[in-house]
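mind reviewing this fold:
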Amino acid sequence: MRRILTLLVSALLASACAGGDRAADGGLTLAVAKINATLDPAEALTTSYLRAYGVGESLAKIRADGTVAPELAESIEQTAPDTWTVVLREGSRFHSGAPVDAEAVRTSLERSAAENELAGDLLEGLTVSVVDLRTLTVRSTGPAPFLDYTLSHYELQIHNVAAYRGLTAPAGPAEADLTGPFRVTGFDAEREVTLQRNPNWWGQAPTVETITVQQVADPQARAQIALAGQADIVDLLPSSAVPELREADGLTLVGAPAANTVAVYLNPASPALADERVRRALAWAVDREAVAEIAGEGLTEPAPSWLASNPAYPQADQQGFTRYDPDLAGRLLDEAGWVRGPDGRRAKDGVPLAFRLQTWGTEGPTGEVLQSQWDALGADVDLSYVDNALVQQARERGDWDAQTAAFTTLGNVPSLFSVQLSPGGSGNYGHYDLPQVAELVQRANTAADDQARTAAVLELNALHAEVVPAVPVHPRPQATAVASRVGGFAAHPLQYENLVQPGLSLGG
């Protein structure tokens, strides 16, 4: 294995040399786990990458402390209970030089809603109207106190719809027309992206002139590249490499729990997981401290409830599965009829308590620890590490039992719960139908003050812990290696805000 990694790193070194001395020409180099397959911001699984590279922007953005700030918009303000008014920055332009006016923004949002399922969920029930060249209103069918978070979502990046019209092949650099501080100059799907400073950007011009982003799917290879100093920023480093990276010269290891909760989503159509008591038992049987320490190398922390990774709701740390309680887990399984046999394994009516667990991305170590902990409970877990595409295909077929996934918890929180718990929600993988959700979302949106609004949100979180559509485990650890010559890197709880930032600089 070490020889294979050495060859892989050598190949990347050769590629870097072929590209010239990037330190001398002002270029920043990145090695990342994944590069998108297209440059169309209306395509699923593309927008977060464009955001991460500094290519795309939304009307607003979420700060590290969880609050919202204008981005492409100059201002975004709630002007009536059901209406927000957006004023665009004067003179803002797309990468092509085309003006970003109110009509272009409205058209962009409409295209995203039509072609991207999650964007459609976010914009459902909203009416976007052009007031004048720089002003729009966004009106909801009811009170909408969280609409600024919605308009900050990475799925709603503003793009020049005319550039994507009539596409018969995946969008490439010629079509990619967005507004971020960097524009795409080269693209080899799932291999490499090259970027150049955007001369039309509305903000202070970045000091970095060019960027090369290379996909290195193997996490151990990324760690070797970081240790060898062959990339300026390396993301999603494996927990096994953290001790060595912490001691390495010439780089800083930046680690911060993300504002998303790694959770094991459970399919109630699976015979072993249909009973709510079984799902609760699995949640109580998780020793989250141990998972965070073993799988996260100290770069993450326990998440007793789904909302616990959101810094705006510290009360969520006191909800859900706040302790490791294998005795309670055992009693719940006994009540549900899944009793231990002489061999220590649990079964009901002769059927073993067994299910499949699929993990992907950086969540392999988490899956391994959970498999061990649930084995101690008497459950047989068939663990597999698969590609994200296979995870999605299994969901579409309904041929799955349990899968890890990590939703962002920052944003329009009532809507994020609705997406996971309401019929038709794009994140409702188990097709749960909970009538309480609509009432609680309505209460959060119509609350007279922040205290009442927070109370409704916390009730949604408690409902999530009661029904257990997913077992919360920990925020996704973010281990990023940043070379010493890079200045201005600021950690952010949103993973896609953690790579290319306009304030980055390259020193000696």
The chain has 16 helices and 21 strands.
